[in-house]
Amino acid sequence: MAGHLKLSSILLVAAIALAGCSDDGKKQAGAPGGAGGAKPPSPVSVLAIKKSSAPLTTVLSGRAEAFQSADIRPRVGGIIKDIAFKEGNFVKAGDLLYKIDEDTYRAAVDEAKATLEKSEASVPAAQANLQRYERLANTGASQKEFEDAQTTLLQAKAAVSESRAALQTAQINLDLTEVKAPFDGVTSATNYSIGNVVTASQTESLMTLRKINPIYITLNESSVNLLRLRTAIADGNRKRGSDADTTDIRLTMEDGTEYTHVGKIDMSEMAVSTTTGTVSIRTLFENPDNLILPGMYVRATITVGEEEGYLIPQRAASRNANGDLTAKFVNADSKVETRTFRSSKLSGNSWLVNDGVKDGDQLILDGFQWITDNATVKPVPSEVDSKGFVVTPTPAKTAPDAPKS
Predict the structure, then answer these.
(1) Residue 280's domain spans which residues?
(2) φ, ψ for residue 321, nearest 5 deg
(3) With 66 labelled, which of 108, 141, 167, 228 sits at a CA distance of 20 to 30 A?
(4) pLDDT at residue number 305
(5) Distance in angstroms (rounded) separating the CA atoms of residues 15 and 389
(6) What CATH number is attached to the domain comprising 129?
(7) Which of 283, 306, 329 is the last residue before a domain boundary?
(8) Which of these three, 258, 281, 306, is where a domain ends?
(9) Among 388, 338, 398, which residue's Cα sits nearest to residue 363?
(10) pLDDT tens for each residue of 30-65
């Protein structure tokens, strides 16, 4: 009897446990997102696109070059007596850079002055001698003596001119002992120190002076693309009624920041490199804050015209195996579909297309790499800022209801 009761108790406990498990299974099966339930649609950021007029651009790489650059060399020899500039600082045109010992050159000036005075002193005597022979011409003085007197006077005057030129040369050499800046610019490190001996027009420069405001940016483009670029710029300028000098050129610095000043095309090389097949395009930019330094690498965005179409941000697009532009959209059934664009043009941080899209189409901005076609999603209206980042608009606050009277 006791064994029968014990077996009954065990069976009762087992039945209660099975009933509890059955209830939990039903609850889990009925819970949202459970193993037996349907997975909710994934939210995706979308942009409702519409047709607009947008600039057409092209991006070229290039390097900065000084507007003016000069290797400073001495024009007279001697010992460097003083270095009057601070390396890496800005100087004005005419500022003293180097002072070469001038003692020998000052002595040469004094010697030239004495020679000039001696030459000038001989002129009055030669002139008086000629006048005396003129008076004696009819009283027995020979024609030869008269002509010799004329020659002596001419030689005396020539000696004065020669001495004056020698004095001028000596003075120039004395002045050249002061090596001055030929234009406004920034100095490099000096290659010589006080006490070093230099020679006139030596091979090695004393230092280099560079003018970097304004500054050149030299861009490189293939000869084939250059022809297309020129045609596009010409077409765009004709539509705007402007010339090539008004073509906007904007720079992106090495750290990705945008340069504030807009540049213009200065000149295009009239020859194609035989080694690279590229053409150099020189552009000019204001550089008042000296942010751009010679040798710095930059990317230039050139505006070549305007065109109407639909903008697809670069972050929302990719390329297929054929190189065609692709992007994913959410259709009317909230399902994902991929569209391919055979023709696209660059417009800043976006691609400009015209076929296969219409006003109001919802372009997927984020996460499209992990979303398959025909997947059901939940569109979240978003926007893209000027730098290409996705921004979700903040919903507008509704005004509180007016109190009832």
Answers:
(1) 56-66+211-306
(2) -65, -25
(3) 228
(4) 78
(5) 60
(6) 1.10.287
(7) 306
(8) 306
(9) 338
(10) 444 444 556 788 888 899 999 999 888 888 889 999
* CA 28 distance to own-chain centroid: 63
Are residues 83 and 188 part of one domain?
yes
| 329 and 364 both lie in a single domain | yes
Distances (CA, A) of 305 to 249, 281, 299, 346, 373: 12, 18, 19, 11, 36
pLDDT of amino acid 384: 79
Confidence at 401, pLDDT banded by 50, 70, 90: low
C-alpha to C-alpha distance for 153 and 131, rounded to whole angstroms: 11
DSSP-derived secondary structure for 91-115: E-TT-EEEEE--HHHHHHHHHHHHH
pTM for the whole structure:
0.67
Instruction: Please state, for a pLDDT cut of 90, what percent of the chain lies above it.
Output: 43
- Look at the chain and count its residues: 405
Please state, in angstroms and rounded to a whole number, the distance separating the CA atoms of residues 369 and 364: 10
Burial 26-63 (b: 16+ CB within 10 A, else e): eeeeeeeeeeeeeeeeeebbbbebeeeebbbbbebebe
Q: What is the enclosing helix (H) or strand (E) of 227? A: helix 223-240
pLDDT at 302 exceeding the cut of 90:
no
Instruction: Single out the residue of 61, 42, 13, 8 nearest to residue 281, CA to CA.
Output: 61
Instruction: Report the DSSP beta bridge partners of residue 307.
Output: 54
- 239 within 8 A of 303, measured Cβ to Cβ: no
pLDDT in tens, 167-192: 999 999 999 999 999 999 999 999 99
